[in-house]
Amino acid sequence: APDIPVANVKAHLTQFQQIAKANGGNRAHGRSGYKASLDYVKGKLDAAGFTTSVQQFSSSGATGYNLIADWPGGDTSRTVMAGAHLDSVTEGPGINDNGSGSAGILETALAVSRAQLKPDKHLRFAWWGAEELGMVGSQHYVNSLAADDRSKISGYLNFDMIGSPNPGYFVYDDDPTLEKVFKDYFATLSLPTEIETEGDGRSDHAPFKNAGIPVGGLFSGADYTKTAAQAQKWGGSAGKEFDACYHASCDTSANIDDTALDHNSDAIAYALWQLAAGTPSS
Ligand code: DTR
Ligand code: CA
Ligand code: ZN
Ligand code: ZN
Ligand code: ZN
User: Fold this and answer.
1) 131, 132, 179, 196: the active-site residue
2) Looking at this predicted complex, what is its ipTM?
């Protein structure tokens, strides 16, 4: 898999910051900053050769939007998905939560295009609306899948907060295969990981898991406190929250640890290259 240039990921975060600034300070569902964020991401993907579609839904009296981007080719009966919620809370621009995940999968998708990757399996990327209202966009997507379409999704990888300023390296433990691919990547960095447990049921992997689809993902921490033992292995500050600006107005471009953003973006690329390559055809 290619190295994902963290400078490119940060450039997307700068765009999200500017979009929030130009749209009342946030990128929340039902606000102009959300659709402006989607238009930015869609423009990059259209230019890179993805087949994009915008799925509309209604939530709390406002129209919500999911952005789905398919990389042409691959076996659509074995689709590997990567997703991130694109909406912020109303309190602020939501750069770590979840501009970081949105930017990480966007840059990985652009790397797929740069490589003109020809994976065995079909690659699909998704940016969800209204996650902060209760995973509304991702639930809408799963509900809209025909039963046989669900079985065509061989795995869904979720990236919700991957650049926390006092970072931890957590790997979802929901599916052993998907957990292993991430642990293998971090082993190449000699970076220990921990199992992610606080987010079960709290992000966009939940609707997929409830539909019986294997899920995995990465997380760099929210409002829990980093222990001394964790600071020993990961650096950062013990006794402080992983992200003290979680759901706050200070979740801005300054609220990002570049190293965590870089490692996690590279891990996304590693996982997608591995999983989409499929099992060597016998
Ligand atoms: N990002 C939060 C949801 C959340 C809180 N802890 C975790 C752990 C793993 C994934 C997601 C979460 C939000 O959007 O409110
Ligand atoms: Ca990198
Ligand atoms: Zn949130
Ligand atoms: Zn989130
Ligand atoms: Zn879990």
Assistant:
1) 131
2) 0.95
| pLDDT tens, residue by residue, 41-53 | 999 999 999 999 9
214-245 pLDDT tens trace: 999 999 999 999 999 999 999 999 999 999 99
Give the distance from CA 72 to its chain's centroid: 20
User: Residue with the nearest Cα to atom 10 of ligand 1?
Assistant: 199
Q: Which atom of ligand 1 is nearest to the CA of 161?
A: 1
If you take atom 4 of ligand 1, which residue's CA is the nearest one?
199
Write the pLDDT tens digit of every residue in 11-29: 999 999 999 999 999 999 9
Ligand 1 atom nearest the C-alpha of 205 is 10
Query: What DSSP line would sit under 120-175, residue for residue?
Result: SEEEEEEEES-STTTSHHHHHHHHHS-HHHHTTEEEEEEES----SS---EEE-S-
